[in-house]
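Milestone M4 deliverable, item 7.
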Amino acid sequence: MRTHAPLLPYVIAFWAGTSLGIGQLEAWNFILLFWVISGCWIGFRWSLQFTSYRFIFFIACSALGYLRANIYVVNVPHKSGDFIVLTLKSCKPQPVNYGRKIYGYARTQEIGKVGIIWPNEIKFPATESIALGIWNPFEEKKLGNFDVKAYYESLGCNGVFRPIKSLSLDSNIPISSIYRLTMINNFVAAGVEKHALGFMLGLSTGDKSLLSREAKDLFARAGLSHLLAVSGYHVGLVGFIPLLFLRSRRREIKYLSGFGLAGIWTFIIACGSPWSAIRSGIMLTVAIAGKWASKSVLPWQTLCVAAWIVAWIDPYAPQQLGTQLSFAATAGILSVVSKPKWLMLRIPIAAQTATLAWVAISFQKVPIFFLPLNVIASVIVTFIGAIIGLGSLAITIDPLVGNAILKFGGLIIGGSIQALEWLDKSTHLEMNVDSTGHFIAASLSGVAWLLKDIIPYMLSRLISVTAILFLFFKLLS
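Output delivered:
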């Protein structure tokens, strides 16, 4: 597999343009970024040779991103404390519970995306609804370690809406709600234990609401939180068998993979369309379309196309930590999958290296046993994913057999969680980050080494050496 990414500089330009347009990147920093990228492009030998036409297109991509962001940003005509009525077209099914409030966000018909602080006394809507409430701008406020303003701004919300009364409209229940309730009913009917039920629901739908705070913290300390977020790993499990038809040389057999593609997008929509899943779905769609056209699309090109489409749909998406981690981890993985040896070890190392700087800065902690735990978890999760799919299918034929299969999966998950709890009590699963600079330098050195075939070779080596020297002198001092 060739690790070549001709679209990469143009995607960077587009993302930078959207960041400038929504005010997340200052003009001087934008100019500095362009100056550095242009200098590296001209000064280092690269497979994508610098030409005036390519540079003009590079600038045009940033201008397009800036224009797209300006069109997307909505000016809110309301003042703090105003009573307003909003039509909530879609509420994300992954609200954050804190105390007696539910922190979520919704797309509205009137003013775009808004943050919602929803009282527990009012039922959280599963369908389109009209709500009367109080409008407030963002405030500098933290609830414990939860930064309310940063959370909503990263989602691109225009302010905070506090509903007082809600009225559901007569509309169809979203497929995500139907799918979630169906899976919950299946697991409950099978007699799956509470913690195992929460994990299996998170694995199959991305909904972590039934997992206790202690369980979520346990997975975070172990470096396994990504298992509960619907990503390319889960999408691949769903479409694995239908996508095998792509290996056939007969065109009519290849087209049967369309069933797998339809199943993948149905699964993504049913899980609430998180950006990590959309990214994976776009990459697979581009790759499959290339196969249908008898063209080989490079994996890095599919990642760049996905990055472009995601930022075009929502210019705030690149600012969200989850989106950044998803693309960074995928970039690290794509840099090592060209060689099939020891992939079970190389993939978690590459993903952890690529995301180490984000983890250290955002959480001030890093997992110690991420490598062995992720290797073990990859086997268990693959097996459990197959059990969930097989059990859910068997329930439609023979409920007794289906329930037995799902309960068996629940027993395995329950035992695995108990083993992880024992390990957590026996030793520390994570270490505190006293100096983020050390971890940023280590991550930068590793990422530059991983991307030696993507960016100019000499530049990657220069970045790696500089980061290593910085880390060395920091440790000495």
